[in-house]
Amino acid sequence: MIACRASRSFKAAATYRQFSSSVLEDFPGAPSTSFYTPAVKPTSTTTTSSGLKITSSPNATSSSVTLTFPAGSASETASQTGAAHASKFLNFASTACGTSTVAHVHALENAGCTTFHSHGRTSSMVGFTGSPEAAHDGSVLGILVKESAYAKWDVRDAIKYAKIESAENDTDTYGYLSSAIFAAGYGAHTPMGKPSDYSSESGCNFDGIKEWRSNAYTTNGAHLCATGIADHSAFVKSVEAAFAGANTKAIDTGAVGGYTGGESRFQGGSDGAHVAMAFDGSGVSAGERMVIKSFLEGQFGKEFSAEGFESDGLVGLVGFSKGEEGGALVDAMSKAFEALGKGGSDGAIESAIKSAKADLAFDYGGSSRGEAKALSLGLGGGIESSAGSFKTAGGLVLKSGVSVASIGDIGSVPFWGTLKTRF
Question: Does residue 184 contact residue 263 with C-beta atoms inside 8 Å?
Answer without folding.
Answer: yes
